[in-house]
C-alpha cells in the first residue's frame, strides 16, 4: 500500500490502548508523524515504542480531553513537536453500563458526557482553531454503532453519549467545511479491545457471543476499524463531509 500520510502530522487521542493504539500504528506505518495522547504516560510510551520499532515517528503527550485547557495544550504541544497538525482522531472514550435509564448513576452520566461528548468538543475546538488558520485538515471522531445506529437495553448513558458524538460530527462538519476542515466519524461495533468484553467475560466467551449477535459472526479487528479511519482522513475521501461510517459486521444494517 502507498504511504498516504507521508510527513503529515496526526494526533490520536486515547492512543495508549485498543483502537487508538491500532489507529496510531496504522497512520505511522503510512508515513505520518504521530502524537499519541491520553491521560496515562506508560501506555502512550509503549505505543510510541511500537511505532519506533517499526521504523515510524511518534511522540507521547499526556492530556485529559475532559479538561479544555489540557486539550488546548495537547494541540499546542503537537504543533510544537512536529510543526503542524494535519489530521486529528478523537478516539478517547469510556464505557459505563449495567443500569437502566431510570437507575442510571449520575456520576456515570457526568463521566460519559465529560469525556465522550465534551471531550470531543474540546478537541474539535482546539484542532479546528489550528487547522483553519493553517490551510485546513481532517478530523475523524470515534462514535459507536451503539447510540447513533442501534440501541440495546442496559447501555443507556453510553448510547446517549455516542449519539451526541455522531450528531456533533455532522453538525460541526457543516460549520467547518468552508474553513477547509473535513470532519467525519467512524462508528465501530464490538471490536478488538477490552471495551467490548462484558464484565468477567473472556475473549473466547466473547467469540461465542458474537457468533450469535453479529451477522458477520465476529468482532471487528482493530486494524479494520483503523482502515476506515485512515480512509476518511485521506485525500481519497476529499468529498466525504459529515459521514458516519459504520463498521459493525452488519449489526445495525
Ligand atoms: N471496543 C469497542 O468495541 C468499541 C466499539 C464502539 C466504539 N468504541 C469507541 O472506540 C474508542 C476507543 O475505545 P477502545 O475500545 O480502544 O477502549 P480503550 O482501550 O479503553 O481505549 C480508550 C482510551 O481512551 C483514553 N482516555 C479515556 N479517557 C480519557 C480522557 N479523559 N482523556 C484522554 N484520554 C482518555 C484511555 O487512556 P487513559 O485512561 O490512560 O486516559 C484509553 O487509552 C472509544 O471512544 C470507544 O467508545 C469502541
Taken as a percent bin, the fraction of beta residues is: 15-25%
Element pattern in H and E: EHEHEHEHEHEHHE
What's the end-to-end separation, in Å? 29 Å
Largest sheet: spatial strand order: 3-2-1-4-5-6-7
Instruction: Compute the CA-based radius of gyration.
Output: 17 Å
Ligand inventory reads: NADP nicotinamide-adenine-dinucleotide phosphate
Query: Can you give the helix content as a percent range?
Result: 40-55%
Shape verdict: globular
Count of helical regions: 7
Question: Quick summary of this structure?
Answer:
The chain is α/β, with parallel strands linked by helices.
Overview of the molecule:
The chain has 253 residues and is α/β, with parallel strands linked by helices. It is built from 7 helices and 7 strands, in the order βαβαβαβαβαβααβ. The chain has helices at 18-29, 41-53, 68-82, 106-133, 156-176, 203-213, 222-233; strands at residues 9-13, 33-38, 57-62, 87-90, 137-142, 181-188, 244-247. It has a 7-stranded parallel sheet with strand order 3-2-1-4-5-6-7, sandwiched between helices. Helix 2 links the parallel strand 2 (33-38) and strand 3. The longest helix is centred in the middle third of the chain and has 28 residues, at 106-133. The radius of gyration is 17 Å and the shape is globular. The two termini are 29 Å apart. 48% of the residues are buried. The model has no long low-confidence stretch (mean pLDDT 97). Residues 13-14, 16-20, 38-40, 43, 63-66, 91-94, 115, 119, 142, 144, 188, 190-191, 193-196 line the site of NADP nicotinamide-adenine-dinucleotide phosphate.
